[in-house]
């Protein structure tokens, strides 16, 4: 019973994948929806037996109406349960972002240390400088770098043409750097 | 100044809607519709500026719209709000809806843009357009069409750029206000449409259900286009349905404006426009060429220019090579289980899918005997289109990777909920010629006559 309650009240963590899918409550490896469908079916059957007991004339469309009423009631109950998630998300986001400046908010977003690296680039290189970037082989990181640095500080070139070299999340660094953060560095070539 | 970014297109759209509808719809509905229409016109204007070489600025964008001030005579002279005659349950529903709206505003405005698609498809391009003060249309430009996903239509990136222009800074937190505003517009249009046929309590209850859809509420806080597309498509279907009821050309024109805007938001929006046109044409045929012209006109404003521009700029249609035949007609049976699981056994939609199934089982004949069949036709055709993509094309891979299925549902599930709201009635309907023994008084009457 306790496991059931733990599963029922567990908050689904907000992740990037949530944009494509919200799993919902999982109890004993089964979606909550399965249990709800079972309960809806049970209530509908009981209602039919109750009408039969009361000698009421069977009405096919009225059965549809009753089924929808039961569905809407369970839907509202599910929404009450989901509100727990919303409160948790709002609480977490409030703690992470409220009262911070725009730069501080951007620094809080994934990926760790990327925005500090971006600010380092903007501080140490002039606008339009030719830069060779070394970074994690991760499309999201590459795309975010472009998002934060373009159009003023993202003149990306090959090493031969570069005036500056910058590395983020790589396991090597030159001996002399213009500046560095925990996750990245920039140097003049 | 972020409020100006929202209020200006809203005001333009409001004046246009006032001119079309005069006093025949409520102030609230005009505001909601006005935001949808106004933002579409602003972004088309910005695209036109890019083509002719006019740089973006707040002044250059607002100046031509000063001509619309002559329409101010059609604006509402008196607006009243009040909850005096609301029942307690109605006030509770309004409160619950407002809580959800406040949550959406909070989540949208507390943090910056984070999603992969939102950055790549829209926000990176918006930033480029803001800094360059135009849409770079030369392929030699390092940020040609804003870099990112160049083939995507420009409504959302241009609207975000408009926000940056109004604030005169690249602030990707405050820019996000447009998404909760679209959410409010969706709820208002949905409510007003239901109110035309149903009681206030039932209309409010269904708005509560709409606002409760978890994936919809989540998408209203982030910067993806699927939910925005769903808002416009719902509006297009609603006003198409109103046209079929009243044969008033105003509804047809507004429906077409919204449907054509779909093609300006995402590529699949073109299909949504074609579906709306098909449903309209199935009813109208060639009976009224004027109506056909009315429905086609917005196509040439919102969709045609962008598709011509793409062709001239050498951009392919679609993500990959869409028109490879061997990729378009191969049955992917492995997606069936995934589709069923995602629709029925996840919490993206609470119990909407099962409610829709129940509606179709028990109310199909009712729907088909009324104008609601056109709403069902729009829903079914969009559903069929996406099922074809999942089951017979290379998009099956994206379904199995959990990338597109649920987001595509955002486009047409609100239409399905609207159909449920219109069809469902909480009270039992009396059937003529049948003695209803379920009611005590009628049972006594039957027994008396039997004696």
Helix count of chain A equals 6
User: By helix and strand content of chain A, what is the structural category?
Assistant: alpha/beta
Number of domains of chain A: 2
What is the end-to-end distance of chain A? 65 Å
- Radius of gyration of chain A, CA atoms, in whole angstroms: 28 Å
Number of strands of chain A: 7
Rg on CA atoms of chain B, Å: 23 Å
Which regions of chain A are unreliable across 5 or more consecutive residues at pLDDT < 50?
none
Q: How widely separated are the two ends of chain B?
A: 80 Å
Largest interface: A-B, 65 and 71 residues
Q: Which overall shape of chain B is indicated by the principal axes computed on the Cα atoms?
A: globular
General shape of chain A: rod-shaped
Keywords (chain A): Membrane, Transmembrane, Transmembrane helix
Transmembrane segments (chain A): 32-50
Keywords (chain B): Membrane, Transmembrane, Transmembrane helix
Protein name (chain B): Glycosyltransferase RgtA/B/C/D-like domain-containing protein
What is the structure about, briefly put?
The complex is a heterodimer of chains A (about 190) and B (about 450). Chain A is of the alpha/beta class and about 190 residues long.
Task: Describe this entry's structure for a reader.
- Chain A: Keywords: Membrane, Transmembrane, Transmembrane helix.
- Chain A: The chain crosses the membrane at residues 32-50.
- Chain B: Keywords: Membrane, Transmembrane, Transmembrane helix.
- Chain B: The chain crosses the membrane at residues 6-24, 31-52, 58-77, 89-110, 177-195, 201-220, 227-244, 292-309, 339-362, 374-392, 404-424.
- Chain B: This is Glycosyltransferase RgtA/B/C/D-like domain-containing protein.
- The complex is a heterodimer of chains A (189) and B (451).
- Chain A has helices spanning 2-9, 32-53, 60-97, 102-108, 114-124, 139-149, and strands spanning 26-27, 30-31, 130-135, 155-156, 164-168, 179-180, 184-188.
- By secondary structure, chain A is α/β, with parallel strands linked by helices.
- Chain A has two domains: 2-97, no CATH class; 103-188, no CATH class.
- A five-stranded mixed sheet of chain A has the order 4-3-5-7-6, covered by helices on one side. Chain A has a two-stranded antiparallel sheet with strand order 1-2.
- In chain A, helix 2 runs antiparallel to helix 3 and helix 5 (114-124) packs across helix 6 (139-149).
- The longest helix of chain A has 38 residues, at 60-97.
- The relative contact order of chain A is 0.09.
- The mean pLDDT of chain A is 88.
- In chain B, helix 8 runs antiparallel to helix 19.
- Chain B has 451 residues and is mainly alpha-helical.
- Chain B has helices spanning 2-21, 27-52, 58-62, 88-110, 116-132, 155-167, 178-195, 200-212, 214-219, 226-246, 249-265, 269-284, 289-296, 299-313, 334-344, 352-368, 372-392, 396-400, 405-423, 440-450.
- Chain B is built from 20 helices and no strands.
- Chain B has a domain at 2-77 and 91-322.
- Classes of the chains: A alpha/beta (189), B mainly alpha (451).
- Chains A and B meet through helix 2, helix 3, helix 4 and helix 6 of A and helix 4, helix 5, helix 8, helix 9 and helix 16 of B.
